[in-house]
Amino acid sequence: MTSCKYLIVGCSHAGMSAAEAIRVRDDKGSITMLTREDLMPYSPTILPYVISGRTRPLAVFLKDEDEMARLKIDFRQAATVSGVNPSDRTVTLASGDRLAYEKLLLATGSLPATPPFPGIESIPYHTLRTVDDALRLKDAMAGTTSAIVLGAGLIAIHAAENLATAGVKVTVIVRSRLLRGYFDDQAGDIIRQILAAKGITVIGDALINRIEDNAGKCMVVLDGKPPVTADLLVAATGISPCIGYLDGSGIRTENGVVVDETMRASVKDVWAAGDVAQARGFFDEKTQIDATLPSAMEQGRMAGMDMVDDKYLKHYIGGLSLNTYNFFGHRAFSIGFSSATEGISDADTDVHCRPADNQFQKFIFQDNRLVGASAINTRLDPGVMYQLVRRRVDLTPDMSNFLADPVSTGRLLMSEIWR
Amino acid sequence: MPKKLVCDGNEAAAWGVVLSRPDMVAVYPITPQSSLAEYISQFVADGILKADLMDVEGEHSVLSVLQGAALAGARTFTASCGQGLAFMFEPYFRTPPLRLPIVMSLVTRDGISPQCVWGGQQDAMTVRETGWIHMYCETAQEILDTTIMAYKIAEHRDVMLPVNVNHDGNYLSYGVEQIELPDQADVDEFLGEKNVNWHVALDPERPMGVDPLTGGAGGIGPSLFVRYRKGLCEGMQNALAVIEDIHRQWGERFGRFYAPLVESYRMEDAEYAIVTIGSMSGAGKDAVDAARNAGEPVGLLKIKTFRPFPLEAIKAALSHVKAIGVVDRSVSFGWNCGPVFQELLSALFYLRIHIPAVSFIGGLAGADITVDHFERVIRTTADIMNTDEPLETIWLNEAD
Amino acid sequence: MGIGYNTIAFHADKCDGCGKCVTECARVHSQTDNPAHSRIHVAWDDKAKWAGLALCRQCGEPDCVSACPAGALVKDAYSGVVFWDENRCVDCHLCTLACGYAGIVCNPETGRVVKCDMCNQDPACVKACPREALEFKKGAQLFNQWGDLEDLVVPGLSSCLGCNSELVVRHTLRRIGPDTVVATPPGCVAGVGAVGVNGITSLKTPVFHPLLTNTASMLAGARRYYNRIGRDVTMLAFGGDGGTADVGFQSLSGAAERGEQMIYLCIDNEGYMNTGVQRSGTTPYGSWTSTTPVGKALKGKTRDAKPMPLIMVMHGCEYVATASTAYMDDYYAKLDKAVKAAKHGMAYIHIFSPCPTGWRFPPKLLIEAARTAVQANLVPLWEYEHAKGDIEFTYSPEHHIPVDEYLKLIGKYRHLDQEQVDYIQKKADRNIAQLNKFTLHQEITTGG
């Protein structure tokens, strides 16, 4: 049985950030990193660009072998963990091998959830979580004239955009509307308008009765709406953390691995970070899955720092929804709240919406602190807005300036903070 | 074969330096030391003295460069007196506690004011409490021999203290005698290995903090300080035996025996004694001889080593006499007597020897202390044998 | 130890929002003056007359790099620059979310991100700034060159908060190295425990307390002996201004005249800061000290500081220089020359050393004080090499700030009236004029 000081299961953003944070403090301690795929580390976020051909499949990788060697990482591919045994600090691999660790990070990410629609199992459909998925979908697009995309999130929209760009007629079917957690109704309309201009049909508020084969095509039968038929079906209806291998390990899981404010799991010497972790939220302490790249990066770094007792480690301030979007060249982002919610009145929001120009900007404040920012086609700096939210910057003295010129005011504030 | 030459005391001192082979000499001229500085410079110029000569800008720096050099490991020499010594006082006071075995000729001179450039021992007596060893010479030969011995005393492991080899300005500095120059190889063998900075050094090969602060009250600072002070006292005390031993070794090797601490002259059956220090002792001895011829039971005690104070030697010499007269060449202001006299009173009281004593002050500002003066000293001392009253100080040159 | 990098520093107080940096950046990178193409942006608050800067900080652990799913952003290990690979970038713009300083932003003209590449270590924006609000800091080169050397001072000296002397001692010894005998006469350096307390020392080199009066002499003696036995040991003094210009001056002057081989560093904090802030010969006109107090009849010191560095030039030292801790690269360059010069004779460096405790200003303003005094021509930076024979400025006194900009930072000048400030301004101008007489190649004029 081989052993290592730091064992990291998973090699995407959380795993890599942890490894790099460990190396800041511990140049010598052995790091072993496992991945179930037989590829170098890559980011699932890149996959839509593989479909579009924007990124060549060989260029997706975040690190090459030299860089892994420089970090002194013993990188093992096609190594799936089947069990974790905290009592003797070992993991068991699918191959039957066992591996001893001193400190373990679970960064196994997530896989697409099986769409909960009757009949889905009867037809071939595509998901998008691995490079193989992306390549399969890319191959399937050849000769395809129509496609249905199920899902309302970023992956769904990316898939739709890629298909539409390739000349495929795309219908997106969503339970309520696109990106509902990220943008309010006004913004949602603009997004729908942008997609519609590129020939993408979005069917909102759709309840799927069943999915069936129709003469080799896929037919989605909707409640109270005409069925939709297409050559290809892409399901992007959500993801679920990979935690099956933790059954019987004693590590506490709910939707994901429950972690504390330094990413420690319920069992000694075990951490979790990224999509698999269920950490506290930014606005409340309730733990949640926070499957965004910036969170994976931050959580991974924190876990790594804690694993080497880095004294500069601070407590996790919590995950909040945030992302950037690019729909056919229209840039958007959203941070935190997108709509008035409990404890926030409409009076605390500031909205500028110009549908004719596809422009939208919305700020939500609580006690004169920014708690939500969402925008389409503005000059706002997403990172500056995110920091104003994260740092809970009191905008009381600057509010009028901020509302008049949020770009400059935000940059001024952050420039001061930096100095 | 030892060479013989005729020279004055300053040159004799310079020859003593040559034979001691110091690494560094630093000088700043001052009357009546100047010719000594000149001899040293000439010897260096002639290649006779293979030392680095530092002709620095004042006596303060003279001793400072030597301290730096000694801390680096150099054997060192300088000479000064009077105002020069006064200007040097700050580093001078610091040399003994650093335990640096620097040797310095003190060509003793009276202090100003009144303005004066002449001999006297006011300079040496004023610095007697600083922790330097003080030895007073009587002849040019003794100056030469004592200068060499001074290195062996200063660098002795049980001593490690700086030494002043004192000779009277004017009388010894310029007085010419025939002297014998010891053989260099003999001197080398006598002195042995240099031993300068084993205990304290400025050397990157053995880095140390030299003379860190001692903290104040409330910590270990004061007790640490006391430890160093007592160490210095111990070195001083050890020096008494070392000085005696080294004088004996010198006599055995070179055939010239000097009284190391005190010299008793015709003291065996003396009923009273006169006490002298330095070059005046010759005239004193002549006067004692004359008095003895006239039947006076007088002896003479010459002090060579004044620091450390030779208490036991004085006890041995004076325990049987009934009165003493002490001739000083300087003044103890406040006591208004001579400092040697004053210290002898302390010693006698300490030794429980209760005899009358009288202080004579003579030879100030370069004045000669003649045989006539000593006749008066002997006469007065004889007269006080049966007195119980404290006696006024007698100023020998008052009426000259 | 890691590697340090050059940076572009921003002095907001000097920026007037003119935007020349923005235009120049756009011009250099896109041959247009459309600010959309610029990698640098100024956020100007017209009411407060204050500027913020949106520019890549080339972070040590850049979040933009970690957030990039395409591996299109890479921090270059050699230059420290975060480079953007336009071919790998997929325009997801997650980097713009990761950066909190708008250092990488979307160019609306192209829809692609842009960020600063430091113009191949010769940034155009810095050169374009007419007010020196942007500064290309090359101090990192010092760190790269010397950072791995041992700090020869133990941690935990008992110096005051923000002590400049400690900074000087640590840097100087790091450069000069362990084969050195260090003299720290009574003063702040000795007072903070450089030699040590109760038998425990603070330096890893040989170190000693000379007297306040004999630093140069003691070092001279030690060096002469090492020469005699054929060892090259550097002699280094950390003198205070009192031990240098006042009571220790004679021994220093003598040693300089004799050409004794040493580096004599005068850490000039303009008075006896260690013993209760009394005036010294280098205390400048107008200064409050505990012996030049401010009352009804007197308003601080009535005489000018003794011009020690010039006096040492007149001694014909091998090397004389002035220095300030705000200009460390300049100081290190001068130490290099001093080390060489001290093999032949005396190298004298007079380093300006603001004292937060004695001068009554907040420790955080230390380097600011060290900088503005230079910029106000109160502490001109120059050097003199005996072989060349003239004085050369190492910081141009040409574009100087009013002395008031410096004086207002420092509590010991708080009482100054306009007449005194005017006097000090004239004195600064006169100093430069005087120095100019010793320069061969430079003809510098200064305004009144």
Account of the 3D structure:
The complex is a heterotrimer of chains A (419), B (400) and C (448). Chain A is globular and about 60 Å long. Chain A has helices at 13-25, 47-52, 65-70, 131-141, 154-165, 185-197, 293-307, 382-390, 399-404, 406-418; strands spanning 2-9, 31-34, 73-76, 81-85, 90-93, 98-106, 110-112, 146-150, 169-173, 201-203, 208-214, 217-222, 228-230, 232-235, 239-241, 257-258, 270-272, 277-280, 287-289, 322-327, 330-336, 349-354, 359-366, 369-376. In chain A, the strands form 6 sheets. In chain A, strands 1, 2, 3, 4, 5, 6 and 17 form a 7-stranded mixed sheet that branches. In chain A, α1 (13-25) packs parallel to α7 (293-307). In chain A, 25% of the residues lie in helices and 29% in strands. By secondary structure, chain A is α/β, with parallel strands linked by helices. By secondary structure, chain B is an alpha/beta fold. Chain B contains 12 helices and 16 strands. Chain B has helices spanning 9-20, 34-45, 59-72, 82-98, 122-126, 140-154, 184-191, 221-254, 281-293, 311-318, 339-350, 371-383, and strands spanning 3-8, 24-26, 52-54, 76-80, 103-108, 133-136, 163-168, 176-181, 209-210, 262-265, 272-277, 298-303, 305-307, 324-328, 357-361, 394-395. The model of chain B has no long low-confidence stretch (mean pLDDT 96). Chain C is an alpha/beta fold and 448 residues long. In chain C, 31% of the residues lie in helices and 16% in strands. Chain C contains 16 helices and 16 strands. In chain C, the strands form 5 sheets. An 8-stranded mixed sheet of chain C has the order 10-9-11-12-14-13-15-16, sandwiched between helices. Chain C has a two-stranded antiparallel ribbon with strand order 1-8. Chain C is globular and about 70 Å long. The mean pLDDT of chain C is 93. Chains B and C meet through α3, α4 and β9 of B and β10, α8 and α10 of C. β9 of chain B pairs parallel with β10 of chain C, so a sheet runs across the interface.
